[in-house]
Amino acid sequence: MRKIIHCDCDCFFAAVEMRDNPDYRDIPLAVGGHSDRRGVIATCNYIARGFGVRSAMPTKTALRLCPDLKVIPGHMAKYREVSAQIMSIYQEVTDLIEPLSLDEAYLDVSACNLFSGSGTRIAQWLRAQVAEKTGITISAGVAPNKFLAKIASDWNKPNGLCVIAPNDVEAFLATLPVNKLHGVGKKTAERLHAMSIFTCDDVKGIPLHELREHFGQFGERLYHLSRGIDHRPVTNERERKSISVEHTFAEDLMTLDECCAKISLLCGELQQRYSKYRSEAAVAGCFVKVKFHDFTQTTIEQQVTYEDEALFSPLLVQAWHRSQKPVRLLGIGYRLTKQSTDLQQQLSLW
């Protein structure tokens, strides 16, 4: 039986800014881009969330919901520094740490002897240490697996702790709404509700073959998650699966030619970013993402095994012709696979 802790900093970027500037602590605050440049909100504090402001929301929309919202640019170097401090505190407890982002990580404390191996007390200690040494609060979830720990960490936010003991899993899941399950978005939730499935208990009443029939491979995942089953280990060896760049334009690109003219700039940025990973990850595919003025979007990709700027223009043409509408965002990227050392060795003539 594993003991997993999911730690999640509360409104991390905004929390760092509020820590460093007392004037920001009692006002609605967001870290993000300018509204006149079609910026988006990276994160916001809980005062702003009370007005309906959310991460990934266009800054223009956020300001309409909260006219007094203070929007400031991010300081990534500072956030990385604080994140490194927090991760070093986690390392005092276990080496089995799986970072998901600068502000979020899974910890496997199954073999930890601190506090006689109590996951609850370890989580309490971690929260206290992070607050004392960095001035940042974290919410934590303790559970027998990653899926449940992730849900638990969000249960009592902000600055909260939720523990789901093995004997409590069934009762906890009984009334858990299906939209809390990872991978269940708005559309999937609507399909489930149309089948009178609202909770995990409702999912358990549907046979596996029927879930597969309606939801394909994801049906099997619904079957397991509704029962609290998640065998994924915490791993600190993360393999990069893709790398990409994207731009949101201040003014819509009205024609296909305008879109194609932006490819070279994007390719230059992509090659610069990929150069850091070229020795360990090989190209296995390429893709183009287009977001239109009405926020609908499409992605087209193909399998390739080499880098070439010429790969992206044909994909862009296909993507644009799907809607033929003004474009607000373009993105390009590579799918990656682990670099094979065998391919780098010269074959023997014999």
From TrEMBL:
It is found in: Cytoplasm. The keyword DNA-binding applies. The gene is dinB. The lineage of its organism: Bacteria, Pseudomonadati, Pseudomonadota, Gammaproteobacteria, Oceanospirillales. Its cofactor is Mg(2+). HAMAP family: DNApol_IV (MF_01113). Binds 2 magnesium ions per subunit. This is DNA polymerase IV. Gene3D superfamilies: 3.30.70.270, 3.40.1170.60, 5' to 3' exonuclease, C-terminal subdomain (1.10.150.20), DNA polymerase, Y-family, little finger domain (3.30.1490.100). Monomer. CDD domains: PolY_Pol_IV_kappa. Residues 4-185 form the UmuC domain.
